[in-house]
Design a protein that fits this description.
The chain is about 40% helix and about 15% strand. The protein is an alpha/beta fold. Strands 2-1-3-4-5 form a 5-stranded parallel beta sheet, sandwiched between helices. It is globular. The relative contact order is 0.16.
């Protein structure tokens, strides 16, 4: 699958070109090295990273996601103001898988509903294994059975 980096709000063209079954990973990682690492980890997986320009833009994109919701946030790169904003944004959008990059204190993981923490230094294929598992879970989820009338 071709890798695409989207750095702003999705345009009509970019949204139309995305396969509806492709897992989209909404990402806020302002540093180039973190973005590069994420891109390398996801290389050849059937997913598309969406790099948002701000934390708010990332959560807005997550709220609009109709497929499985997955957000990746470089927690260590957040300012004090962004940490406060993260708590507010996460309280409004509580669903989905939340992968935090960096060191998240244990007492903050539950209120933020962090499902995976990847502490620095990042290991090889750590993120790749998590996303691969998410992809397999999506493929094997049982479909909801509707009652017959």
């Amino acid at each position: 699958m071709e890798e695409r980096l989207i750095t702003g709000p999705p345009t009509r063209d970019s949204v139309e070109r995305l396969d509806l079954f492709t897992l989209r990973l909404v990402t806020y990682a302002p540093g180039e090295s973190a973005q590069r690492w994420i891109t390398e980890e996801l290389n050849s997986l059937p997913c598309v990273p969406y790099f948002a320009a701000s934390l708010r833009a990332a959560f807005e994109a997550l709220a609009e996601e109709f497929r499985r919701r997955v957000i990746i946030v470089d927690y260590d790169a957040l300012s004090k103001d962004e940490l406060v904003e993260l708590r507010m944004l996460r309280s409004r959008n509580t669903s989905g898988t939340f992968i935090a990059l960096g060191n998240v204190r244990e007492h903050l993981r539950a209120p933020l509903r962090v499902t995976h923490v990847l502490p620095r230094p990042f290991g090889s294929e750590v993120l790749r294994n998590i996303v691969d598992e998410l992809e397999r879970q999506r493929d094997t989820q049982e479909l909801l059975r509707l009652p017959r009338f």
